[in-house]
Give the backbone structure.
Amino acid sequence: CVPLSSENTSPYIPCPNGYQKDPFRTICIHNTPDPKIECKPDEWVWPAKQICIPLVKAWTRLTSPPDGSLFRCPKSWDWDDGLKHCKPRRYEVTAGECDPGYIRDDFQFKCISKSELVSDRGTCDLHQWLWKTGTVSICFPDGGSSSSVSLSLSLALTPTKPNNIECPKYWYWVSSGHCAPPWPKDLGSDCPTYYRWNRERLYCD
Protein backbone atom coordinates (compact mmCIF):
# COMPACT_ATOMS: atom_id res chain seq x y z
CA CYS A 1 0.00 0.00 0.00
CA VAL A 2 1.13 3.62 -0.57
CA PRO A 3 -0.10 6.87 1.08
CA LEU A 4 -2.45 9.16 -0.86
CA SER A 5 -0.52 12.24 0.27
CA SER A 6 2.44 13.30 2.43
CA GLU A 7 0.00 13.85 5.33
CA ASN A 8 -0.69 10.09 5.46
CA THR A 9 2.88 8.80 5.73
CA SER A 10 2.98 8.37 9.52
CA PRO A 11 3.86 4.79 10.52
CA TYR A 12 1.34 5.09 13.37
CA ILE A 13 -1.76 5.32 11.20
CA PRO A 14 -3.88 2.34 12.33
CA CYS A 15 -5.30 -0.41 10.14
CA PRO A 16 -9.09 -0.86 9.74
CA ASN A 17 -10.97 -2.86 12.36
CA GLY A 18 -10.24 -6.57 12.10
CA TYR A 19 -6.84 -6.01 10.49
CA GLN A 20 -3.28 -5.61 11.74
CA LYS A 21 -0.04 -4.36 10.21
CA ASP A 22 2.20 -6.87 8.48
CA PRO A 23 5.69 -6.38 10.01
CA PHE A 24 7.39 -7.36 6.75
CA ARG A 25 5.32 -5.42 4.21
CA THR A 26 3.46 -2.09 4.13
CA ILE A 27 0.01 -3.68 4.13
CA CYS A 28 -2.74 -4.56 6.60
CA ILE A 29 -3.56 -8.25 7.04
CA HIS A 30 -6.64 -9.90 8.55
CA ASN A 31 -6.41 -10.77 12.23
CA THR A 32 -7.35 -14.37 11.46
CA PRO A 33 -4.03 -16.24 11.48
CA ASP A 34 -2.95 -18.14 8.40
CA PRO A 35 -3.22 -21.92 8.55
CA LYS A 36 -0.09 -23.37 10.14
CA ILE A 37 2.42 -24.36 7.50
CA GLU A 38 4.27 -27.60 8.08
CA CYS A 39 7.83 -27.50 6.76
CA LYS A 40 10.42 -30.24 6.52
CA PRO A 41 13.07 -30.51 9.28
CA ASP A 42 15.61 -28.80 7.03
CA GLU A 43 13.25 -25.92 6.15
CA TRP A 44 11.75 -22.86 7.88
CA VAL A 45 8.67 -20.68 7.27
CA TRP A 46 9.21 -17.24 5.73
CA PRO A 47 6.32 -15.20 7.24
CA ALA A 48 6.30 -12.54 4.51
CA LYS A 49 5.42 -15.10 1.83
CA GLN A 50 4.09 -17.95 3.99
CA ILE A 51 6.31 -20.47 2.23
CA CYS A 52 8.92 -23.00 3.32
CA ILE A 53 12.55 -22.13 2.59
CA PRO A 54 15.42 -24.65 2.80
CA LEU A 55 17.99 -23.98 5.52
CA VAL A 56 21.33 -22.81 4.10
CA LYS A 57 24.71 -22.94 5.82
CA ALA A 58 25.99 -19.46 6.69
CA TRP A 59 29.25 -20.00 4.80
CA THR A 60 27.56 -21.13 1.57
CA ARG A 61 28.16 -18.73 -1.31
CA LEU A 62 25.31 -16.27 -1.91
CA THR A 63 23.35 -16.43 -5.16
CA SER A 64 23.21 -13.03 -6.90
CA PRO A 65 20.45 -11.68 -9.19
CA PRO A 66 20.89 -12.29 -12.95
CA ASP A 67 23.57 -10.30 -14.78
CA GLY A 68 22.25 -6.96 -15.96
CA SER A 69 19.75 -6.59 -13.11
CA LEU A 70 19.09 -3.04 -11.89
CA PHE A 71 18.89 -4.17 -8.27
CA ARG A 72 20.66 -6.19 -5.58
CA CYS A 73 19.51 -8.59 -2.89
CA PRO A 74 19.49 -7.50 0.78
CA LYS A 75 22.45 -8.65 2.87
CA SER A 76 22.44 -12.42 3.55
CA TRP A 77 19.60 -12.91 1.04
CA ASP A 78 19.76 -15.12 -2.06
CA TRP A 79 18.25 -14.73 -5.50
CA ASP A 80 15.63 -17.40 -6.23
CA ASP A 81 15.02 -18.19 -9.91
CA GLY A 82 11.73 -19.89 -9.10
CA LEU A 83 10.30 -17.02 -7.05
CA LYS A 84 11.85 -14.41 -9.37
CA HIS A 85 12.93 -12.32 -6.38
CA CYS A 86 15.30 -12.39 -3.41
CA LYS A 87 14.68 -14.43 -0.26
CA PRO A 88 16.30 -14.55 3.21
CA ARG A 89 18.62 -17.43 4.10
CA ARG A 90 17.25 -17.81 7.62
CA TYR A 91 14.74 -16.16 9.93
CA GLU A 92 17.38 -14.02 11.69
CA VAL A 93 18.11 -12.03 8.50
CA THR A 94 14.52 -11.35 7.34
CA ALA A 95 15.06 -7.64 8.08
CA GLY A 96 17.45 -7.66 5.13
CA GLU A 97 19.57 -4.50 5.24
CA CYS A 98 20.70 -3.08 1.89
CA ASP A 99 24.20 -2.01 0.86
CA PRO A 100 25.13 1.70 1.09
CA GLY A 101 23.49 3.66 -1.72
CA TYR A 102 20.55 1.25 -1.95
CA ILE A 103 17.09 1.22 -0.39
CA ARG A 104 14.86 -1.78 0.23
CA ASP A 105 11.74 -2.38 -1.88
CA ASP A 106 9.41 -4.31 0.43
CA PHE A 107 6.97 -5.04 -2.38
CA GLN A 108 9.45 -6.83 -4.62
CA PHE A 109 11.92 -8.03 -1.96
CA LYS A 110 15.05 -6.38 -3.36
CA CYS A 111 17.36 -3.36 -2.97
CA ILE A 112 17.08 -0.53 -5.50
CA SER A 113 19.79 2.06 -6.13
CA LYS A 114 18.86 5.40 -4.57
CA SER A 115 19.92 7.07 -7.83
CA GLU A 116 16.99 5.29 -9.53
CA LEU A 117 14.37 6.50 -7.04
CA VAL A 118 11.71 9.09 -7.75
CA SER A 119 12.39 12.54 -6.30
CA ASP A 120 10.03 15.33 -5.23
CA ARG A 121 7.10 15.71 -7.62
CA GLY A 122 7.10 19.45 -6.87
CA THR A 123 9.87 20.00 -9.41
CA CYS A 124 7.67 18.70 -12.25
CA ASP A 125 4.32 19.75 -13.70
CA LEU A 126 1.03 18.28 -12.52
CA HIS A 127 0.63 14.58 -13.42
CA GLN A 128 4.38 14.23 -13.89
CA TRP A 129 7.11 12.67 -11.77
CA LEU A 130 10.87 13.18 -11.63
CA TRP A 131 13.07 10.23 -12.58
CA LYS A 132 16.61 10.73 -11.24
CA THR A 133 19.31 8.44 -12.57
CA GLY A 134 23.07 8.60 -12.27
CA THR A 135 23.24 10.56 -15.53
CA VAL A 136 20.20 12.82 -15.72
CA SER A 137 16.95 13.99 -14.11
CA ILE A 138 13.84 13.84 -16.31
CA CYS A 139 10.19 14.79 -15.75
CA PHE A 140 7.91 12.13 -17.24
CA PRO A 141 4.10 12.06 -17.49
CA ASP A 142 2.29 9.60 -15.24
CA GLY A 143 1.92 6.37 -17.18
CA GLY A 144 4.58 7.37 -19.71
CA SER A 145 4.56 8.80 -23.22
CA SER A 146 6.68 7.67 -26.15
CA SER A 147 6.78 11.25 -27.43
CA SER A 148 8.66 12.49 -24.35
CA VAL A 149 12.00 13.98 -25.33
CA SER A 150 14.91 14.44 -22.94
CA LEU A 151 17.34 16.79 -24.67
CA SER A 152 19.67 16.70 -21.66
CA LEU A 153 20.68 13.16 -22.63
CA SER A 154 22.17 14.48 -25.89
CA LEU A 155 20.99 11.38 -27.75
CA ALA A 156 19.91 11.31 -31.38
CA LEU A 157 16.15 11.10 -31.92
CA THR A 158 15.22 7.46 -32.45
CA PRO A 159 11.42 7.12 -32.81
CA THR A 160 11.62 3.32 -33.16
CA LYS A 161 13.61 1.07 -30.83
CA PRO A 162 16.51 -0.67 -32.65
CA ASN A 163 16.22 -4.46 -32.94
CA ASN A 164 19.39 -5.09 -30.92
CA ILE A 165 18.11 -3.11 -27.92
CA GLU A 166 15.51 -4.01 -25.30
CA CYS A 167 13.87 -2.18 -22.40
CA PRO A 168 13.50 -3.47 -18.82
CA LYS A 169 10.21 -5.16 -17.97
CA TYR A 170 7.24 -2.72 -18.08
CA TRP A 171 9.41 0.11 -19.45
CA TYR A 172 8.79 1.76 -22.82
CA TRP A 173 10.91 3.29 -25.58
CA VAL A 174 11.19 7.08 -25.75
CA SER A 175 11.75 8.89 -29.05
CA SER A 176 14.82 10.62 -27.61
CA GLY A 177 16.63 7.27 -27.83
CA HIS A 178 16.33 5.49 -24.49
CA CYS A 179 13.99 3.46 -22.27
CA ALA A 180 11.91 4.93 -19.44
CA PRO A 181 9.69 3.62 -16.62
CA PRO A 182 5.99 4.60 -16.87
CA TRP A 183 5.57 4.86 -13.10
CA PRO A 184 7.87 5.09 -10.05
CA LYS A 185 6.73 1.59 -9.03
CA ASP A 186 8.43 0.20 -12.16
CA LEU A 187 11.88 1.40 -11.09
CA GLY A 188 14.17 -1.55 -10.49
CA SER A 189 12.71 -3.76 -13.23
CA ASP A 190 15.33 -6.05 -14.73
CA CYS A 191 16.48 -6.53 -18.32
CA PRO A 192 15.40 -9.52 -20.43
CA THR A 193 17.53 -12.66 -20.42
CA TYR A 194 20.94 -12.24 -22.15
CA TYR A 195 20.74 -8.41 -21.94
CA ARG A 196 22.61 -6.07 -19.59
CA TRP A 197 21.57 -2.64 -18.34
CA ASN A 198 23.52 0.20 -19.98
CA ARG A 199 23.48 2.86 -17.27
CA GLU A 200 24.87 5.58 -19.54
CA ARG A 201 22.46 4.98 -22.45
CA LEU A 202 19.45 3.93 -20.34
CA TYR A 203 18.54 0.74 -22.17
CA CYS A 204 19.37 -2.99 -22.24
CA ASP A 205 21.96 -4.13 -24.78
Remarks:
- DSSP finds no helices and 15 strands in the chain.
- Residues 42 and 136 are 48 Å apart (CA to CA).
